[in-house]
Amino acid sequence: MDPHRLVLIRSGTTRLRHRVGSGYLVAPRLVLTAGHILRDGESGAYWEEIQVRVGHPGRGETLRTGAELIWIHPQDLDVALLLTHDEIDVPGSVRWGHPVGRAPLRYEGLGFPLASAEDGRDAEHLRGVLPPLSSGARGLYVLDQEPAPDLRDDGRKAWGGASGTAVFCEDHLVGVVIRDDRSYGNRRLRALPAHCFVQDDGFEALLRRFAGGPPRLTEIGAALPTAQPAAERSPAEQETERLLWSVLGGRITYAAHARALAQRLGYTVPDSHEPTMPDLAALVAAHPRALPSLSSTLAPALTGEGERTRLTDVLTRARAGGLCLLLSLDECEHLLELLRGICKEQPTLIPRAAREALRYAWLPDPLNRTHLCADDLEHVVEHLESLSDSERVPDGTPSVPALLRLVECVAAALGREAGAELRSWSDQVAARTGIHPAALAERRTDAGRWATRQSSPFSRVIVEVSRARTEPRESYYCRILLARADGTHTPLHEAESAPRTPEEVARRVRDAVEVVADELGPTAAPHATVLVARDSLHLPIDEWNPGAPNEFVPDQPIGAEFCITLSCPEMSDLVRGREREHRRRWESGDAAPLVVDDERVTRPRLRRLLQTTHRDATQVVLHGSPEQRDALLELCLALGVPVVLWDRRADCPADAAGLQQLDPTGPLADLPERIRVFRGAAFDEPETLPERPALVWEEHGRRPRPESLTLHDPPEGAHAP
Question: How many Å is the maximal CA-CA distance in the chain?
Answer without folding.
Answer: 97
